[in-house]
Every structure is written in C-alpha cells, then in structure tokens.
Amino acid sequence: MADPKGFLTTGREVAETRPVGERVKDWNEVYVPGSLLPIISKQAGRCMDCGIPFCHNGCPLGNLIPEWNDYAYREDWSAASERLHATNNFPEFTGRLCPAPCESACVLGINQPAVTIKNVEVSIIDKAWDANDVKPQAPDRLSGKTAAVIGSGPAGLAAAQQLTRAGHTVVVYERADRIGGLLRYGIPEFKMEKRHINRRIEQMRAEGTKFRTGIEIGRDLTATDLRKRFDAVVIAAGATTARDLPVPGREFKGIHQAMEYLPLANKVVEGDFVTSPITAEGKHVVVIGGGDTGADCVGTAHRQGAASVTQLEIMPRPGEERNAGQPWPTFPMLYKVTSAHEEGGERVYSVSTTHFEGDEEGNVQFLHLVEVEFVDGKLTQKPGTERKIPAQLVTLAMGFTGTDVENGLVGQFGLDLDARGNIARDADFATNVDGVFVAGDAGRGQSLIVWAIAEGRSAARGVDRYLTGTSSLPAPIRPTDRSLVV
Question: Contact 129/199 with Cβ under 8 angstroms?
Fold first, then answer.
C-alpha cells in the first residue's frame, strides 16, 4: 500500500489548466505543463490498495491501478511505467482522453472524492517518455504469417502492436492522409497534442509494423485483393456513420456533421490549411449534442473566434452528484464542465430542434427549437415554448449509428451485421468470414477509447490463435462485455 493514511490526510487535487484568456488563443493542450509532478506522488498515495479493487472492474483493460499508484507514490517511475504498459498499449491517450470509469468505480469514491487515477496515469507515462523508458519491443522471431489491419484508431493500433510483437508481419491501412483515426482528426489538439500519436507510430515502426495511408479498403483496394495478400484481416474501421437530423431546412449551407467540422481544424494545426474551410469566426454557432464530441466543437469554435456558442441537449440536465438510480460503482451520468465549457458559451437542456431558417442564398441563419419533457416515459414537446436562436454555423454531434456500409467494405467481405448495424463477431472477435476479425467500434458500436484499446488487444489474441493455433497474448474483454452501468 502506498500511504496508509493518504486518503485521510490528502485532499484530491487535479491538473491545473492554463488561464482561459491564454489558451483560447492557441491549440496547445489546456493543462499547465509539469503542473502534476509536484503533487502527483501524494495523490497516488490516496489509493487504499483495496482488498477488492473495483477500479479494475470499471476499467475494461484491467489496469493494475493500485500497483502503479504505489510505485508513483514511491517515485519509482520506471516500475510504474512497466505496470502501466502491462495492460495498456497507449496510456498517454487514455490518460488524456478517457472519461475515467475507473474513478467512478474507485472504492474511496463511495464517500470521498475518488483517487485521481487518470492524472496519475498520464504523469507516469509522460515521465517515462521524458526518461526514454519507452522502448520498441520488436519480436524475437517472425512467424511467417501476415495480417492486415483496416483502420488506425486506438483499436486498430492496439491490435497491430500486439500482433507485431507476437511475430506476425502487420500492415495498417488508413483511408486518411495520416495515421491515427479519430485520435488524429476527431480529437482537437487542445485535448491531445498529436505529437503523442507521432511518437507511438515511430515506436511501432521500429517494432516492425508497416503503415499505408490514403488507401480505403472497399474503394481503393478491394476486399478480395486484401484477403489474397494476407493470412488474416482485422477490421477496425470504427462506427463512422453519423446520426443525422432530418428536419426542415437541414439542406441549408452551414450545417455540418461534427466529423466534417473537427478534422479541418486539426488540419489547420497540421499546416494543411491557413484557415479552416469551415470556420466559426464571427459566427453564431450552435452545437447539437451534449456529449464529449459536442464539447470538442464548442472548444474549437472558441478558438476560431465565434461570436457566440450555444450547445443544445435533448435530455434534461444531469445532476452534479450520484442519485439513487446510479449507485457506486457504476458509471454515473453527471453534469460535467469540460475545459471547453469553462471557456464560455451557453448550454441549453431539454430542447429539440424543429427546423432551420435560412437566407435567400441558402445559408442557415436561425435554429427553431422547442422545450421537451418526459410524459409517461415519452419525450413530448411543451406547448408555447417554441423560439428561435441565431445559427450561422451548426454542428451535429449526436453520435454514430454504425460502421460505414457505403464504401463497399462490408459488402465486399460479405460480412454479417448484428441488429444494431455493427459487424457481427464470435467469442474470438471473428466474423462470419474465415480469417476476418473485427475490433473496436465497428463491432461494438460507439464507445470509449479505453474500450477500443481493450477490443484491439482482445481481437489480437483471436487472430494470433487463428494464425498459430495458440496464443499467449492477453484478452481483457469478451465481445459481449459492457460498461458497468445501471
């Protein structure tokens, strides 16, 4: 155990953010560099090393949280990094982007603020990179087997790294111009600077993984050709079919899916554009959708100089504390103020968009909405609450409904889909097509980054067994496992 009295003597402290007026002028991460190290050892000492550590249940990766908390408390950063990497290929990603279901399941959180597990995690891995402790782990020998991975998001990268380390020759195909999937083009720079992806890619290249960008399987390369070239295929293409809003006026210019809007801002940071082709500068911006992607749109609009930003959510505002219907250790739906919300804008709950209004040139100008409430379990409009708000740029951040079926990938492979529109798979993450496996959101549906990495690791074991007849790779989850919720 780290500090036997730590949870009694030390209060919770989290990473310090830069002043709002400073950070909205750039795209750097919002946190003050190095602000965690002076406090993180004591924060790790708050871990109680519980007899039954429920943080393990909250985390699908099965992260060894009490162990690396103990090492961090003792400032044995090398040992902490080894324990961290034992279950997680990319802790610098999860430490920045995961909503930390492990903290919701922390036993201390029953009656006190939970341990800052996420902050400890990112401190350990950042320290490891600074100390040059993160080394390539090339296999001792090659198996002679080949595998293709379609998609370079967290699931695809995790599967590729595990299979490469098992001795297989792995090629990752990415339809975008850079590796990283939604990590690259769906996550704004202020949440995670892309240098973190770049150095992981270099580590994977040094281990032997090969990458091919600008190639979309189903269009640029057929499924038949891919299966001829490789002994196994892992589909980790994500759930990229965005949920739309079929209301009058949807056709007006200036209404975009979040994943049309956010990648362009990232391309500006990469140097591809001087100004984004879709910019919020000087415009009244409305973001439809109250989740993390909506918050990413809010923060991006602030940095582009929006005149105003309004975020709409159809559900009621969540409470700030757990209610009886969401007991510990489940992941509760709580009112969350992200760094983007700290920067300004208005959040409106319990409203539904009825239609859009545009000008003579076909540009959106206003959004009409109405308040809604639950009546007998059904969402119902409240009469007399209709109003309109300025809207010169609208982003739709309402989630995703399944994997892309229009590019030909699903049809060419002949894959079965489940009732939710995801690619069906068995207990080994194998599809109905021999030698073809699926990992991540393409099989699970829209989920969290920590689940994507767990899926990639687990699918890699299934592929390894298929190729060699056995496997020593870990499989932290089953395809049927779900988050710890009510």
Answer: yes
